[in-house]
Design brief:
This protein is α+β, with helices and mostly antiparallel strands. It has 10 helices and 9 strands.
């Protein structure tokens, strides 16, 4: 597993570098924001979907937004420098900004919910992936590496999940279960992933214990739009309930995705490999 992990880290580093150096109008606002960090020498790590999206989709990936976790002292500088771009502040000290058209969520490392609640000890960038709800989110990548050093990558079960293991819970405690359920459904559909029995149970409980329109509103508020709607959520709940009553095996909630597999030459390993083109 270590060799596979090393190869995947190299591939991810290469794709992040390509992402921030290539000219692409579709993602230019995000790239320019990252260049701002480089010019100012601030330490921040990219959290959320960008590392996973670039690893899975390469140049085809179009990030919806940019999640940045800052060194606490550097966050103060960032907040002051971009005060005019702040749209709103949340209760734990994080910011929602619009920078050159890019939607940016940013917060100081110590304000991460699982650190503040004592669920994950020893707050650090190395431990940050352990605060993610899903194994497929449990990775962070240094936004701007120190000149002459490799870009730091920290993970907590992400590469195990990437090796075709089921989508699973990384840290169950979370203040936003409706968003966790919606995120699970979105990632499962996008990447054609099976859900672990534990995750099936969690999502079913959320969809059974709340009004479906409330889950839809939570998804819309967090992502800007709702993918499933109440009918889609109801269908997912019924299929999960049927599965849980008959099996404890991982469950393909959205069979049929991903769409296709192509053979590509992998410059990291010198071999041909299968690369999947995901349905988004």
């Amino acid at each position: 597993m270590a060799d596979v992990c090393d190869v995947t880290v190299r591939q991810l580093r290469r794709r992040i570098t390509e992402f921030v150096t290539r000219s692409n109008p579709a993602v230019q606002s995000v790239v320019e924001t990252l260049k701002d960090l480089r010019l100012r020498g601030w330490t921040a790590f990219i959290f959320g979907g960008i590392p996973r999206g670039l690893l899975g989709e390469g140049w085809r990936y179009r990030p919806r937004d940019l999640d940045l976790v800052f060194d606490d002292d550097h966050f103060v500088c960032f907040e002051s420098e971009f005060a005019s771009s702040i749209l709103r502040r949340n209760n734990y000290g994080g910011l929602r900004l619009q920078i050159r058209g890019a939607a940016v969520d940013a917060w100081p490392l110590s304000a991460t919910w699982a650190f503040r609640e004592g669920l994950v000890k020893n707050a650090s960038f190395e431990r940050l992936p352990a605060t993610a709800f899903l194994n497929f989110d449990s990775i962070v990548v240094e936004a701007v590496p120190v000149r002459g050093t490799g870009r730091r990558v920290f993970e907590d079960g992400f590469f195990d999940g990437w090796s075709q293991k089921p989508l699973d819970i990384n840290l169950e405690e979370n203040p936003h279960p409706a968003i966790c359920a919606a995120r699970t459904l979105r990632i499962s559909r996008r990447y054609g992933l099976k859900l672990s029995y534990r995750l099936c149970t969690y999502v079913w409980k959320v969809l059974s214990g709340a009004r479906l329109d409330e889950v839809e509103r939570a998804e819309r508020s967090h992502y800007g739009r709702a993918v499933f709607g109440t009918e889609g959520l109801r269908d997912a709940r019924e299929r999960l309930e049927k599965h849980l009553s008959s099996s404890s095996l991982p469950f393909p909630l959205f069979p049929g995705a991903p769409e296709q597999v192509e053979l590509r030459f992998d410059t990291d390993t010198g071999t041909r490999r299968e690369e999947t083109s995901w349905r988004g």
